[in-house]
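User: I'm writing a tutorial on reading structure tokens. Could you give me a worked example: one chain, its sequence, then its tokens, then a sentence or two explaining what the tokens reveal?
Assistant: Sure. Here is the example chain.
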Amino acid sequence: MNNTSQIFRIITVFLCIITLFSYGVYSVFFKSGQKPDTIKYSNGFLPFDFEEAEENEKSPEPLTSAPVEQNSPVLPTAAGEVLGKVINKTVKSDNSTVTDSNVHIKNSTDLNISASALLTANLGFKIQENAEAQVLIIHTHATESFLSEDRDYYTSSDNSRTTDNNFNVTELGAIISDKLSASGISTLHDRMQHDYPSYNGSYSRAAGTIKSYLKKYPDIKVVIDIHRDAIQSGSTKTKLTADINGKRAAQVMLVMGSQSGNVKNFPNWQENLKLALRLQKNMENMYPALARPLSLMPRSYNEPLTTGSMLIEIGTDANSLEEAKYSAELLSETLIKTLKES
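And here are its predicted structure tokens:
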């Protein structure tokens, strides 16, 4: 009897240990990762976590959605459940808060700026043609993608992100890089997906990439971070287009950081803005309506790393890939003109 009781006690203790261990594993790997979700995703999407803000930048990125299957290719035709409609808009210059020297700016900072003064000031660098690398193109959020075709609805198969570089913003970077290099402006294109597999920390990883290029190629003067926007209200997504030479192009927005708000590490922000305003003006002159108002933000977006840094958003996730690619071609022409005038 004594032996039987001992064995029973040992088994009971063992089972208790196993139970506690199993609950601990569940708490660490499953329960702790659960977050309250007020959005019902009928298309298999999961919400991305908010972007971990850069140092001195506490405002989170807007919540976006990611496909569970990160490597799912964009489908050539619409399939799956229809989730909502797509409407087409053109953002006009009257959305701006500052209009100066034929450029339009949405100033979200507490700073007073004079576009005319910055446009007439000299840049701190000059692009050397047919020389060592002058421009670097990167993608902090490389997996941002587009609709596979032009239509007025989207479905559960329309992933807003994909790791297939033929269908995300990396393809736009390739177009711009090739056109700049063909014009004599030597350009490097980094295809690293800084937002995969983790979206959090994308800007920190991108900063490391930029620094490594600047160390290896000290002649780089301009760093361009290509993104795309996303505009959604309820189940309705908005695509932004402009009619350029009888063809729809996704609208383009320059997003520039500044030393304002909580940003204290960006003393040379106006040097970047000088270049961006030149590009903005050339876009508005060469291809009217292609450019949305330039967005000036109390953020840094890794732009303090050079005096020629710009973040450029091409279209939204409701634009077709072809519309975005056409915009990349038009943007390339304005970049070439702007950089050769520097």
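What the tokens reveal: The first strand starts at residue 45 and ends at 47. Residues 2-29 form the longest helix (28 residues).
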